[in-house]
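Our platform keeps sequence and structure together, in a single record for each protein. Such a record has a labelled line for the sequence and another for the backbone structure tokens. This encoding replaces a full spatial description with a residue-level series of whole-number codes. Below, we set out a record of this kind in full and without editing:
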Amino acid sequence: MLTIKSKEVTYSDEMSLTVSHCILIAEQNEQKILLSHPNLFLYKITRASIKTSIRYANIISMFYRFLSTQEKMAGKELGVYHMLADNKDIMLWQVQRQIDRVDKQSLRPSSETIYEDAKVLLVYFKWLNDHGYLTNVQVTLKSWRANFRSRRMLNYVQLMARNKIDASNIRVLDKRSRQRKSNFLITDPEIKLLLEHYSDPVYSAMFNLALGTAMRPMDLVKFPYIGNDDNTHILPYSEMDTKRVTTSYTVYKSKGNKDRTINIHMDDLKALEENYIIPYYVTRKSLYKERYGKPCPPSILFLNKKGEPVDEDMIASRTNYAKSKINKTHPDFRMHLTFYQSRHWWPTQHIIATFGDRLLTDPLEALYLATAQVLKNQMGHDDVQTTYKHYVDMARIIMMLHKGRTFDLITSCAKTVSNFMHGLDLPGDVLGNEAIGSVEDEEDLMVG
């Protein structure tokens, strides 16, 4: 089979702006070949988000590898794959992925993921068509979605998978996948377990700050010890105006290269100073100087035990390690939970704090008008209507489960995140096992 590798590149474009995206490099007949058309697409469409670029590159790579196994592509150059591929090939690719999945008795990729990946291919071919490149894919047609629930399709997939012993059908695999990916809000006991099992307290401090601000990991890693420009007022808590309840903070170049201004509760900055800055920052700043041969700039706050600036990959890997430790003693802990769950926690708690019992009586439209702008600013979305309904539904379930309880939440007069968690005694088996839906990719929950 064809070998294709994805590589991240960073450079200055024609307007002297720094851009990052993936490129695809194929290895064929002992030669390395740049895939020109996919790489042009990745540059033009995905350079605003490296995560999107990685995802799109992986999908195109998978499809090209599949094409290389098809008889119609035998002896053909890679440079003409985009011209020879058609809608039927995309259909066959979806079916083959399902066959491979059943053959392995795997929960992934789910039927929904296979369909969403096929839509990314249509985006790729539409871009090629729009820019004058010849293809055989008709994007104007309704995209074909394999009906993996039909008996005929199920029988075909099972037959082709050649799994003769207790083969679970696709519906069962999808059901299991949804059960393992219950996307109900992370619970108080789960938060406590995660904070207790981080091997480095810097990640606990960052998770707490994320709970109180809804900042993405890419934003948290840039949070400064001392701010500049619009953030010159950002200092350690004890050096700020502690009479204020909240303070503003400008998030620069977040997702989509956008800036936005959010509110941070002063108690969260106090907790950050008490739990990380005072006990750890000075020592780690010295380690930074030893490692890099220069003083740690005030723009960098979060450093790991080695004095290295924390990045998004470190957050992800340390969170996965913490979850693996939790799973040894708490097998019911939902292993699909990620650091990003902190971002979902904030809007749900904000909605509960704002509306209280009105959540159970007022129509969605009235609730939306009352607080949508706050969520839009804090979350950094251009349009929050779809996700707003998701958070309202989640908040309503919590209110129904615990009607009559008063929540101390993150508002202009609320307590800090850590106080909230210590004051809330929610049974894990109540919140942890309830679900209001499943989302394949947490970032896909966000609109805008």
